[in-house]
Amino acid sequence: MATMNISLSDALKQFVDQDADEGGYSSTSDYMRDLIRQRQRQKAESLLRALIAEGLASGPARPLDPDHFKQMRQRAKARATK
């Protein structure tokens, strides 16, 4: 596991320590890791919303050719052998 040191003002350190205690975290490191994971989830959810909106804006679905996935597999196989 990597280590990262950060500098905080006294007021921010006090806030982090208090919030970690109130949140039931075993340490401020656990608290910070949880904050980072929450931010990662937020970014992933934001990307997913954007992709869904893009899909909805692309118009109605169109039927695929019966051989669509077979052709995709053939193209992927051809690229993999290059």
Question: Which key features would you list for this structure?
Answer:
82 residues; elongated; single chain
Number of strands: 0
Rounded average pLDDT: 95
Proportion of beta-strand residues: under 5%
The 3D shape can be described as elongated
Straight-line N-to-C gap: 38 Å
User: Number of helix segments?
Assistant: 3
Write down the Rg.
23 Å
Uncertain runs: none
Largest sheet: none
The helix/strand order is HHH
Fraction of residues in helices? 55-70%
Helix/strand structural class: mainly alpha
Would you give an account of this structure?
- The protein is elongated.
- It has a domain at 10-60.
- The chain is built from three helices and no strands.
- It has helices at residues 10-22, 28-57, 68-80.
- The longest helix has 30 residues, at 28-57.
- The chain is an all-alpha fold and 82 residues long.
SSE blueprint:
Blueprint: H1 10-22, H2 28-57, H3 68-80
Question: How would you summarize what this structure contains?
Answer:
The protein is mostly helical and 82 residues long. 68% of the residues lie in helices and 0% in strands.
